[in-house]
């Protein structure tokens, strides 16, 4: 029983050590990967986004192909350099992309615009009419106090 526990403990320790060492021994050079996606993927993304009118940057329909190209580029570079994907470098890379290019966009990715008048009008007129009606009722009630109590 003691030998089994010792074997399980040593096997668990070996797995922990392997889990800590294998990512660093995977062949991925993080610095080189980061430089490569910046030099190759980001350059193409900047060029493509530069060709798009700045007012359309928040339009998913217009930026989807460019964004998918960037995502695919980071994935392909990771495969070629034997890096895991996604990883913390890619996460930081895309956070920077969003901070620079998409910081003014709505969270849903759609351009913000006013709703049509057929939707907006009831949301404006109903509260105004209820307010006027309640004011009229209060004024009328204050002038006709007989028989209330």
Describe it for me?
- This protein is mainly α and 149 residues long.
- The model is unreliable at 18-22 (pLDDT under 50).
- The protein starts with a helix and ends in a 6-residue tail after the last helix.
- It has 5 helices and no strands.
- Helix 2 (30-50) runs antiparallel to helix 3 (60-80).
Q: Helices, strands, pairings?
A:
Layout: H1 2-21, H2 30-50, H3 60-80, H4 88-101, H5 117-143
Helix pairs in contact: 2-3
What is the mean predicted local confidence, pLDDT? 82
Q: Which regions have little confidence, pLDDT < 50, spanning 5+ residues?
A: 18-22
- What is the distance, rounded to the nearest whole angstrom, between the alpha carbons of the first and last residues? 90 Å
Provide a count of the helices: 5
Mind summarizing the main beta sheet? none
Q: Helical percent range?
A: 55-70%
Strand and helix order: HHHHH
Q: What percentage of amino acids are in beta strands?
A: under 5%
In short:
The protein has 149 residues and is an all-alpha fold. It contains five helices and no strands.
């Amino acid at each position: 029983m003691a030998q089994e526990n010792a074997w399980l403990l040593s096997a668990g320790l070996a797995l922990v050590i392997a889990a800590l060492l294998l990512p660093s021994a995977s062949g991925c050079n993080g610095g080189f990967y980061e430089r490569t996606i910046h030099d190759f993927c980001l350059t193409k993304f900047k060029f493509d986004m530069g060709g798009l009118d700045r007012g359309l940057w928040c339009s998913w329909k217009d930026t989807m192909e460019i964004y998918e190209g960037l995502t695919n580029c980071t994935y392909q570079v990771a495969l070629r350099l034997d890096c895991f994907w996604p990883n913390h470098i890619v996460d930081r890379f895309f956070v920077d992309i969003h901070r620079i290019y998409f910081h003014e966009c709505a969270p849903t990715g759609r351009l913000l615009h006013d709703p049509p008048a057929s939707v907006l009008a009831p949301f404006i007129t109903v509260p105004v009419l209820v307010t006027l009606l309640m004011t009229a009722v209060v004024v009328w009630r204050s002038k006709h106090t007989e028989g209330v109590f």
